[in-house]
Design goal:
Blueprint (H helix, E strand, L loop, with lengths): L3 H23 L1 H4 L2 E6 L2 H19 L2 E6 L3 H10 L6 E5 H10 L25 E13 H4 L7 H5 L8 E4 L6 H7 L7 H5 L2 H14 L3 E5 L2 H10 L4 E5 H9 L4 E16 L7 H11 L2 H4 L23 H4 L6 H4 L3 E2 L2 H19 L2
Parallel strand pairs: 1-2, 1-3, 5-6, 5-7, 8-9
Antiparallel strand pairs: 3-8, 4-7, 4-8
């Protein structure tokens, strides 16, 4: 016959085992330590993976699963359908500002995520900066040599700079260059855009250029490939993508003059299956030691300023960063307040212009 003490001990073990099974059933994703991150693909996501995702996952002892997506429009659909499968998404700052206002994102917990050494303005309630980049004008050096366009007025000047153009098919970073090409001073761009009339003025300027726009690009990978293939003579796009393309043999150059200084950020979609783990993963990727890896793989600047102080980024590399003071001084910082207020309306007007 089983002794009472032995029976009790076995009963307690059975109860504990049962509780563990129930716990694992209730939180399967947390039990296996996996987070799913969605980004834009191409050389950008490859750089993120090597610099941020993989080192952060290794440091935490978890697994990171990577996917690609088409932006906050995809998040909107999944949130509304109650079918969110991504824990973290990489987003442009303007799109994230709008998504946060729409209620599509979880509020970030800054008691978990340390931003004490971040550059001011590079994080919000719903999105934390992952890298600093610039939207610039790039040109084919086989076409123009080293004397390519140096201003947005040059980009629009088809007599001085004949050739095929490419331009973005979405609103982000599309209107500001048009106004600067139309003679608006950089410091006045968002004042002019703060009305439907100002938005229409920018769209009318883009309409002038439409006959010369051979491609309306949809992704960074695409605009980099356009320059590698020599399919267009100049394009708008992201500085880091062009640097990678140049390393791969593309005849491409660009200028930071009148560029749009912007940042990408990480956000957690509303209803993310692993919200708590995602918050810790974002915190890990935001550390200076992890952020300092980024310039080794793509020329986008860290958002954690301490990353420049720990000895990983040399001065030559720092001078290539969009956020270096010399480069930043030539650029127009993106206004998140404008995107939060106007993006939805302006995007609809932009799409109407594209389909005319």
């Amino acid at each position: 016959m089983m002794k009472k003490t032995e029976f009790s001990r076995r009963s307690l073990l059975a109860v504990a085992a049962g509780a563990m099974v129930m716990s694992m059933t209730a939180m399967p994703a947390l039990a296996d330590g996996t987070v799913t991150v969605a980004s834009w693909g191409g050389s950008y996501q490859n750089a993120q993976s090597l610099a941020l995702f993989q080192p952060a996952a290794k440091a935490m002892g978890i697994t990171v699963k990577e996917e690609t997506y088409g932006g906050m429009s995809d998040v909107r659909l999944k949130v509304k359908a109650g079918a969110v499968a991504w824990d973290i998404v990489s987003s442009g700052s303007g799109s994230a500002a709008r998504a946060g206002a729409e209620g599509l994102l979880e509020k970030l917990d800054y008691s978990v995520i340390d931003v004490s050494t971040f550059y001011p303005g590079l994080y919000t309630d719903y999105c934390i900066g992952s890298d600093v980049f610039s939207t610039v004008m790039a040109y084919n050096t086989a076409t123009y040599g080293e004397n390519g366009p140096k201003s947005w007025a040059d980009f629009w000047d088809v007599k001085k700079f004949p050739g095929k153009r490419a331009y973005r098919n979405k609103i982000a970073g599309a209107l500001e260059p048009a106004l600067m090409a139309d003679g608006v001073a950089p410091e006045d761009v968002y004042k002019v855009l703060d009305s439907e009339e100002g938005i229409k003025r920018a769209l009318d300027k883009i309409r002038e250029l439409k006959p010369e726009i051979a491609v309306w690009w949809k992704s960074g990978a695409q605009h980099a490939q356009l320059m590698k293939d020599g399919e267009v003579d100049m394009t708008t796009g992201w500085n880091g993508r062009f640097d990678v393309a140049k390393k791969d043999g593309a005849k491409v150059a660009y200028t930071f003059n009148q560029g749009l200084l912007d940042y990408d950020c990480f956000a957690i979609p509303k209803g993310a299956p692993n919200k708590d783990l995602a918050m810790k993963f974002v915190a890990e990727m935001s550390k200076a030691e992890i952020q300092a890896n980024l310039p080794e793989h793509i020329t986008y600047g860290p958002t954690n300023k301490k990353a420049y102080e720990i000895g990983k980024i040399d001065e030559k590399m720092a001078l290539m960063m969009p956020s270096h003071p010399d480069n930043a001084a030539m650029q127009l910082p993106i206004s998140l307040a404008w995107y939060e207020k106007w993006e939805q309306k302006a995007a609809a007007m932009y799409q109407d212009m594209l389909t005319e």
